Amino acid sequence: MAEPSRYVMYPVNFLHVSSSNPRFRAEINQALNWQDEFDTIWLSPTNNPQEQLMRLAKLKSLSDKFCSTSLDLTSQIVSEIRLPKEKRSFKPRSVNPERYVEQGILVEFCSDVERGIYGGDRGAYKAAKRHMVALQSLVDQKQPELCLPLTCVVTYNGFRTLCSAWIPDINARTLQYGLEGDKFVCRDQELNGKIERICRSVRVGPHNFKGRDNSSQTFYGPGEIEGHIVEKKGVKKFYLLNMGRMMPPISLPKSVQPRSCTAHVFETNGEVSEPSDCVVGQTAELFTSHGMREEGGVATKSGILFTNGGEHDIPNPRASAFTGREVRGKAIVLEGTGTIFFELHRPEVLQLGSRNPQNTCYFSSDALSGKFLTQSLFTPPRFW
Question: How sure is the predictor about 230, in pLDDT bands with cuts at 50, 70 and 90?
């Protein structure tokens, strides 16, 4: 049996731990509120070195317990993955990818079957690791007023899962920062300031979101970021979620051959041009020749979709069939750009190599060119 590995995030270091004999422990049968325990320790005062040491010891103890439970859950789920759903010990909450909520933990399989945006499961595995790196970089900023989900990555028998503490208190009503339908909302000034400070501390700059109604909103972090405010027992907590794609994609030096992609053009009359090879970030001529602008890109199962159509334009059935979503008007799909989701800068590169904050949603392979997407690249898994 393959030896599983797990990564855990807590404010000491980024750890890798192994276990040679995982076994599902039936005695762990109560739904723990891991996040409440983590928040209590994370928000506790540290006025002197002794309190700091006590806080770190509690964090390590909780994180080790969380890792152990996540590993047991993953090993049990993977061992039954080939069984019919009615015969499994745990029933999935969703499929493609499969997600489970057990023992107060959200277990999500890292796979590329949902939209094909990573170019394969290998890319999805890398994206999970980048998620942990981003969380650790935020924790290292030591801003306890922002609560992050307790998270670990488990690799077992060829499968990888992203395990996060389930937060039952957040829902659509608590969302104060992030995508709400076709608009990006920033309702609470206090939360806005906290997110701006922590993003600037890791040298991540702002960018604009352009909605379908042409409304514009400047915000910090990745397009799928969520900020929630939960008030419980007189205590207000600020939660920051979906920060896995916080770091900007790696820019390739000019001496390196740029990444190529395939462009598909779908006309409104049903005609489809022959697929053409182009270079990621150097597609301005392609868009200009078809009277379109390279903005408003949305990730689909077949690539990044750009369209000039609105809700009153003619449907484009061939583009809709190709991308798996309703498309209206003329459309261009860039296939093979999934590396922008996992080939990301490490936090220390931004700290040492850049004076100015970098945008987290650059689409161009030349990350310093200032070209970025003005739409969320994909819909993240909701915690609510």
Answer: very high
